[in-house]
Amino acid sequence: MSSAQLEIQLIACLVAIACAIPGTFLVLRKMAMISDAISHSILPGIVIGFFITQDLNSPLLILLAALTGILTVVLVEYIQKTGLVKEDTAIGLVFPALFSIGVIMIAKNANDVHLDVDAVLLGELAFAPFDRLIISGADVGPKSLWIIGTILAITVGLLFAFFKELKISTFDAGLAASLGFSPVAIHYGLMTVSSVTTVGAFDAVGAILVVALMIAPAATAYLLTNELKRMLIYAICFGVCSAISGYWVAHWLDASIAGSITTMLGILFLAVYLFAPNKGVIAVLYREKQQRTEVSLLTFLLHLKNHTDERERHVNHLNEHINWQKVRSKSVLDLALKNNMILLDNNIVSLTEKGEAFTSKAINYIITNKDAQIEDMKDDFFLFRG
Amino acid sequence: MDVTEYIKLVFTDYTLRTITLGTAILGAVTGMLGSFAVLRKQSLLGDAISHAALPGIAIAFLLTGAKNSNILLLGALISGLIGTFWIRGIVKKTHLKSDTALGLILSLFFGFGMLLLTFIQKQPNANQAGLDKYLFGQAATLLESDVWMMAIVTGICLSVLLLFWKEFKILLFDADYTKTLGFHTKFIDILITSFIVLAIVLGLQTVGVVLMSAMLLAPAAAARQWTNSLSMMVLLAAIFGAFSGVFGTAISASQNNLSTGPVIVIVASVFVLVSFIFSPTRGLLFKQIRFIKNRRDLQLHKTLAFMYNIVESHENISHPHAIKILNNFQGYTKSTLQKLVRKNYVTIDGNMWSFTEEGFKAATNLYNQQINNNE
């Protein structure tokens, strides 16, 4: 592994961490699409900054572009406040307009600037190690490494300094306001960090793929935990893992590094989406199926309790009267038998004592239907699992 | 190049005619379907779908090696649909919110698409150039067959829209009621979403994946400001969209180095801006005017009510009072008094004012109305 390869991976990892931190909060605050809007609309800021400085890595350019990002947020909020359109429409109107202005500015000056839309949108990590930062003649490393390192340091510093405030205002803006933290200040602070990070990362992974690095690790982490600190740590881990694995996939396929990092993120998300222990699709489907069976069982027991007539309690009757398929009635019957709720005598079903007690309890719950009671009842209802 | 010359050119020049017609049709169909997206609060779905279509284009190219735009668009359609249904799956099955789901699918699919595009570019197959145009769109590459394709799809959209108009409308405004009436809501929902995907995919070649969402939203958002009726809105959105296409093409054709997609988006944004400001009922300008007018009316009423309180204690309603005593009152200004005089509610005689018969009646009614309202 050459030093250039090492540097590329280091930059990719730093970008991933710097994106994962604000990304976690954006996902929790339901503002994920704002990051998409910012990533597009910084283009005119970058172009104007580039005209002034002629250097894609100058701090002034980063500042101007970050200002455009904040301008986007302000514009979206203003349009939303007029009540003419909904928030999502406001986002969808603002960023394409700003982005178009950026594209046109580039196109009109294409002959005398070294800047093209592809580079801004897609970035080229592979060239990052060639742009070195030279301080008094000494080579101290690639420029983008320093830029993203600085941004990351600031982000981490802010995170530790304002963790409590961020946490409260994210989960309960009203409480935060009443405790004296200004939700508005925190909101714009977060927006500023997001847009600075987006700008800082754009020449490494490109503006659009910053969105992937912000949202995907956070969303993946959110499927695995409900705790903020753990979510942050998971998100950072996912980001770093896909950055490194993405680099090697790109190396192997000889394709865009940013693209393959995103693809790795996608694969990771898909895996967690399907297999997450509690919130994954498979777990959810399984739980839904179990709940359906439980409800069926309850219906069945209630039916038994209501009818003393033997005809009503015959096994075949289940298929006709309650309108269940054969398989389903059999699985419900088996479940009830296994839990000693019913007795089968010559295909006539009757409740056992345990079944009687349980059914009375269930009826009692259904009739009174107080929310507070469900907590105790849960243990009883979910008795038969496994 | 002046306007008449340009118009003549539109009818004679093959390329210009094709592009103008293509962008106009595209604007109309996206405006039409965009109205539904905006009203269903799915505005950003367009953005997600257009990005999600990219890997489909790349895979279609990898599989067939064809540059035929219809096959590539079929790939885009399939991958757009996969993206859409995955978004629905995420929102339905997990606790992730729709914005996260949209951003996730958008960026992941786009990243995967970029991976494939760069992979294709490194292939020895010389045929590959031209996929880039789907990123930012190149209206100049439109062929007459593409325009025919658009026209046919627009025709299908229009007929489906007319056929299911009632269902779409009722689902839009009251989904629960639709269900109780026995309509198959899931089917209608999937139908309208699929057509939105179709419209987006159609526009990829012209406007590109990045800006396609604006084509969907802007005409609809502009049209929304002028009307409260769905049919009117769809019609207006189609007109706005078509005009954005025509004007955008004209502007970009008259200048060097201007790509059509961004210009169309800017023209559409101007439509939105104008609608936001100048629409008679919802527009910001008229809203502000109404606001000022209401404030003035309120001040006038306050002055009148205050005067009424004074006059009430006298037997003769036309008994003159000094203007001075009004001075401490908040709503009173010289101009409000002048206005009252002009309305013939009050007469002024030197430093004194007195109510007329008419003014007293108006003030009494004002007072009663207030009491009635309070009850």
From TrEMBL, chain A:
<feature type="transmembrane region" description="Helical">
    <location>
        <begin position="60"/>
        <end position="78"/>
    </location>
</feature>
<dbReference type="GO" id="GO:0055085">
    <property type="term" value="P:transmembrane transport"/>
</dbReference>
<keyword id="KW-0812">Transmembrane</keyword>
<protein>
    <submittedName>
        <fullName>Manganese/zinc/iron transport system permease protein</fullName>
    </submittedName>
</protein>
<keyword id="KW-0472">Membrane</keyword>
<dbReference type="GO" id="GO:0043190">
    <property type="term" value="C:ATP-binding cassette (ABC) transporter complex"/>
</dbReference>
<dbReference type="GO" id="GO:0010043">
    <property type="term" value="P:response to zinc ion"/>
</dbReference>
<keyword id="KW-0813">Transport</keyword>
<keyword id="KW-1133">Transmembrane helix</keyword>
<feature type="transmembrane region" description="Helical">
    <location>
        <begin position="256"/>
        <end position="276"/>
    </location>
</feature>
<feature type="transmembrane region" description="Helical">
    <location>
        <begin position="170"/>
        <end position="190"/>
    </location>
</feature>
<comment type="similarity">
    <text>Belongs to the ABC-3 integral membrane protein family.</text>
</comment>
<feature type="transmembrane region" description="Helical">
    <location>
        <begin position="37"/>
        <end position="54"/>
    </location>
</feature>
<feature type="transmembrane region" description="Helical">
    <location>
        <begin position="6"/>
        <end position="28"/>
    </location>
</feature>
<feature type="transmembrane region" description="Helical">
    <location>
        <begin position="90"/>
        <end position="107"/>
    </location>
</feature>
<keyword id="KW-1003">Cell membrane</keyword>
<dbReference type="Pfam" id="PF00950">
    <property type="entry name" value="ABC-3"/>
</dbReference>
<feature type="transmembrane region" description="Helical">
    <location>
        <begin position="145"/>
        <end position="163"/>
    </location>
</feature>
<dbReference type="InterPro" id="IPR037294">
    <property type="entry name" value="ABC_BtuC-like"/>
</dbReference>
<feature type="transmembrane region" description="Helical">
    <location>
        <begin position="202"/>
        <end position="224"/>
    </location>
</feature>
<feature type="transmembrane region" description="Helical">
    <location>
        <begin position="231"/>
        <end position="250"/>
    </location>
</feature>
<dbReference type="InterPro" id="IPR001626">
    <property type="entry name" value="ABC_TroCD"/>
</dbReference>
UniProtKB/TrEMBL annotation, chain B:
<feature type="transmembrane region" description="Helical">
    <location>
        <begin position="71"/>
        <end position="89"/>
    </location>
</feature>
<feature type="transmembrane region" description="Helical">
    <location>
        <begin position="18"/>
        <end position="38"/>
    </location>
</feature>
<dbReference type="InterPro" id="IPR037294">
    <property type="entry name" value="ABC_BtuC-like"/>
</dbReference>
<feature type="transmembrane region" description="Helical">
    <location>
        <begin position="101"/>
        <end position="120"/>
    </location>
</feature>
<keyword id="KW-0812">Transmembrane</keyword>
<dbReference type="GO" id="GO:0010043">
    <property type="term" value="P:response to zinc ion"/>
</dbReference>
<dbReference type="GO" id="GO:0071281">
    <property type="term" value="P:cellular response to iron ion"/>
</dbReference>
<keyword id="KW-0813">Transport</keyword>
<feature type="transmembrane region" description="Helical">
    <location>
        <begin position="230"/>
        <end position="251"/>
    </location>
</feature>
<feature type="transmembrane region" description="Helical">
    <location>
        <begin position="263"/>
        <end position="286"/>
    </location>
</feature>
<feature type="transmembrane region" description="Helical">
    <location>
        <begin position="141"/>
        <end position="165"/>
    </location>
</feature>
<comment type="similarity">
    <text>Belongs to the ABC-3 integral membrane protein family.</text>
</comment>
<protein>
    <submittedName>
        <fullName>Manganese/zinc/iron transport system permease protein</fullName>
    </submittedName>
</protein>
<dbReference type="Pfam" id="PF00950">
    <property type="entry name" value="ABC-3"/>
</dbReference>
<dbReference type="GO" id="GO:0055085">
    <property type="term" value="P:transmembrane transport"/>
</dbReference>
<feature type="transmembrane region" description="Helical">
    <location>
        <begin position="190"/>
        <end position="218"/>
    </location>
</feature>
<keyword id="KW-0472">Membrane</keyword>
<feature type="transmembrane region" description="Helical">
    <location>
        <begin position="44"/>
        <end position="64"/>
    </location>
</feature>
<keyword id="KW-1003">Cell membrane</keyword>
<keyword id="KW-1133">Transmembrane helix</keyword>
<dbReference type="InterPro" id="IPR001626">
    <property type="entry name" value="ABC_TroCD"/>
</dbReference>
<dbReference type="GO" id="GO:0043190">
    <property type="term" value="C:ATP-binding cassette (ABC) transporter complex"/>
</dbReference>
